[in-house]
Design a protein that fits this description.
binds 1,4-dihydronicotinamide adenine dinucleotide, ProC C-terminal domain-like fold, binds (2S)-3,4-dihydro-2H-pyrrole-2-carboxylic acid
């Protein structure tokens, strides 16, 4: 988080839900200098509250109503399936205090969130990912028409603490953002698992295979983000004609990797739409 000249200039942020995604965001914010006293967390699971207190020294509460006391920014980080109930608990205070509600929930739309919080509420949808924990996340953002410039700035500043942010002007695209970058780390972890397992099958010790696969993914990601070359160009530079890479790439292409990735991302995008539809009246 950008360090304000006076730490009390930063808004008090209430996290509703202290699970995996909240933990990644809180960890990233604290590592970048956010004041733990200005981050409040509602989490019903006592063990998760204890871990958040121990690791980040943030005040934790069993209920959402306690956590939002004095908070002008709410970060809703519960599962899509329980979002409506959680918003229902917060409706009176949302209508009185007029916070900006930032939701990281997949699929749930800004109009659903605004309605569930009593109507006419400033809502920002954010789709971060778990590399946020290491400050290496990326977040897609969408703001509804009720948000003002200060609230959009607050949302962007909060998420900028854990990696770059990208504003989306068409809310319908948030499901595609979710499918590419929200869920994306899991695809990379799946690839890492498969590379490690295949390396072990070819005779490498497990630790060695893990180190080789992990550092290769890190190095390739650094080239993708730091060099001014496309993924296709970088791939071609590894692929010597008639060499080992060509043998592997041809196997991937023959196996339909591109179509498989397309089908996977289409399925994730559609699941986002279903999560929204399942929560409509
Ligand atoms: N895990 C990920 O990589 C990402 C998750 N998201 C979104 O983040 C949200 C949370 O996902 P995860 O952190 O993975 O799930 P999670 O299950 O780890 O965390 C949700 C937490 O909410 C708590 N909770 C349930 N009812 C509550 C209530 N009434 N008040 C306060 N807290 C309550 C649960 O005890 C749980 O710890 C989801 O909506 C998901 O779509 C978005 C981007 C990436
Ligand atoms: O799997 C999910 O639904 C959430 C949203 C993006 C990553 N995890």
């Amino acid at each position: 988080m950008t360090s304000p000249a006076n730490p009390t200039d930063s808004p008090v942020v209430a996290f509703i839900g202290g699970g995996n995604m909240a933990r990644s965001l809180i960890g990233g914010m604290i590592a970048r200098g956010a004041d733990p006293a200005r981050v409040r967390v509602a989490e019903p699971v006592a063990a998760l509250r204890e871990a958040l207190k121990t690791d980040f020294d943030v005040p934790c509460f069993a209920t959402a109503a306690e956590a939002v006391e004095g908070a002008s920014v709410w970060l809703l980080a519960v599962k899509p399936q329980v979002m409506r109930t959680v918003c229902g608990e917060l409706t009176p205070v949302a209508q009185t205090n007029r916070p900006v509600a930032i939701s990281v929930a997949a699929g749930i739309t800004s109009s659903q969130l605004s309605n569930w919080l009593g109507g006419d509420v400033a809502v920002v949808r954010a789709m971060p990912n778990t590399p946020a924990l290491l400050g290496a996340g990326i977040t897609g953002l969408f703001a509804n028409e009720r948000t003002d410039a200060t609230q959009r700035e607050q949302a962007a500043t909060l998420l900028d603490a854990v990696g770059p942010t990208v504003w989306i002007s068409d809310e319908a695209q948030m499901d595609a953002v979710t499918a590419v970058s929200g869920s994306g780390p899991a695809y990379v972890f799946l690839l890492a698992e498969a590379m490690q397992d295949a390396g072990v099958k070819q005779g490498l010790p497990s630790d060695t295979a893990r180190q080789l696969a992990s550092q290769t993914l890190l190095g390739a990601a650094k080239m993708l983000t730091e060099l001014d070359e496309t993924a296709a160009e970088l791939r071609r530079k590894v692929t010597s004609p008639g060499g080992t890479t060509q043998a592997a790439i041809e196997t991937f292409e023959a196996g339909g990797l591109r179509e498989l990735v397309d089908r996977a991302i289409t399925a994730a995008t559609e699941r986002g739409r279903e999560l929204s539809a399942a929560n409509d009246d």
